[in-house]
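[recover] target loaded
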């Protein structure tokens, strides 16, 4: 998703994104349950699903799934991605708490500030 894209979504697009994110998280949960060897390749899809959905439960599920992958991670990569998602979710939620809706967040910029640019793209 490009920066600011979330601010320009129609209601239908938001609903479709929520459904797709939920499907991604369900598939990831199945992969994790089966302890398949390629677990590290689902880190980025989980991150994007958690970022893109407006559903609070799915955001929490994404954070939980990333936490469950920590012991499969190389060099704390997954935990750093989880912390980035947690920061992004907290920023998004500030608008929800104020009643203005989910705040658009440029996760790419937050990733650079956190020093994770090469970490995520190297997964």
């Amino acid at each position: 998703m490009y920066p600011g894209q979330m601010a320009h979504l129609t209601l239908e697009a938001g609903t479709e994104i929520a459904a797709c994110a939920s499907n991604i998280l369900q598939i990831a949960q199945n992969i994790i349950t089966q302890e398949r060897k390629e677990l590290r390749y689902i880190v980025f899809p989980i991150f994007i699903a958690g970022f893109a959905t407006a559903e609070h439960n799915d955001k929490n599920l994404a954070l939980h799934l990333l936490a469950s992958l920590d012991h499969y991670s190389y060099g704390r990569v997954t935990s750093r991605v989880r912390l980035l998602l947690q920061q992004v979710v907290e920023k998004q939620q500030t608008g929800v708490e104020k009643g203005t809706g989910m705040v658009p967040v440029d996760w790419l910029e937050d990733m650079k500030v956190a020093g994770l640019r090469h970490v995520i793209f190297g997964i």
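[recover] notes: Helices lie at 11-33, 43-52, 56-68, 77-98, 107-113, 117-121.
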